[in-house]
Amino acid sequence: MSDQKKKPAPVPSDTELKNEGEGSRTGARRYDAGAEKMAKSGQVDGLARRAEKALEGKEGVELKRAEEKGKKAQLPHPR
C-alpha cells in the first residue's frame, strides 16, 4: 500500500449546491465554457468524422435505433 494519502474530493461551493430552478445560470455558464473550450480545441472536425464513420459502420443500426427511441420518448408532464 502506498504511503501517499488520497486527496479529498473537491467540495462544491454553496453557490453550486443552491437550487437555481429552471434555467440554472451556473449550469449555463459551465455548459458555455465547455462548449467554447471544445470548439477551440481543434478536435471538432475529427470527432465529427469519427461519428460519421460510426453511423456508416457496424454500430450505425444501433445508433439510429437509439436516436429514434430518444425522439419517441416522452417525459411526464409536470403537474
Helix content class: 55-70%
Instruction: Compute the CA-based radius of gyration.
Output: 20 Å
Uncertain stretches of 5 or more adjacent residues:
none
Q: Quote the average pLDDT.
A: 84
Number of helices: 4
Secondary structure tally: strands: 0
What structural category arises from helix and sheet content? Answer: mainly alpha
Beta-strand proportion: under 5%
Give the biggest sheet: none
**Element-by-element helix/strand order:** HHHH
Q: Could you give the distance between the termini? A: 53 Å
Global shape: extended
Topology, please?
Blueprint: H1 14-17, H2 25-40, H3 44-56, H4 60-72
Helix pairs in contact: 3-4
Provide a short characterization of the protein structure.
It is built from four helices and no strands.
Structure, explained:
The protein has helices at 14-17, 25-40, 44-56, 60-72. It has 79 residues and is mainly alpha-helical. It has a domain at 46-72. α3 crosses α4. The termini are far apart.
